[in-house]
Amino acid sequence: MRFRTGFGFDVHQLQAGRELWLGGVLIPHEKGALGHSDADVLLHAICDAILGAANLGDIGHHFPDTDFSFKGIDSKILLAKTCQLIGEAGWKINNIDSTLCLERPKIMPYLQAMKDAISQSAAIDQDVISIKATTNEKMGFIGREEGVAAYAIVMLIG
Ligand code: MG
After folding, report:
1. 20 DSSP β-pair partners
2. Which of 57, 89, 92, 136 is 20 to 30 Å from 78 at the Cα level?
3. Which domains does the chain have, with CATH numbers?
4. Whole-prediction pTM value?
């Protein structure tokens, strides 16, 4: 049995007039994340961690923001495609641990829905998906609610 770990990080600007998608869930908020896709920072960090563990490059390589077919795309589709890529390379996800970093809104009410969405897209059990959240203690661009960031690590087995 082989084991690999991978790390992912992503950040997006928050702007009025955009939808806020986090962990595959649409969250009611006065600002949303800016990006070529639905700008789901948590799913992007998880995709990068999965790709990193399999040494298959990064999300920008597989789903470039210059490709119009990815414009506004649901990042749950990108997660499913990422899992397909590592599956073809002989890997499967053992577990995911992640942290969302944003000032507002509180995401606790949405954690279960996020786990449901990730579980479904990645075809993995919910008990191997960990999602944590923290504020940035009002410091920096996250503290000023100008942006949102996410970190993820993934272990693959194969
Ligand atoms: Mg991104």
Report:
1. 27
2. 136
3. 3-157 (3.30.1330.50)
4. 0.97
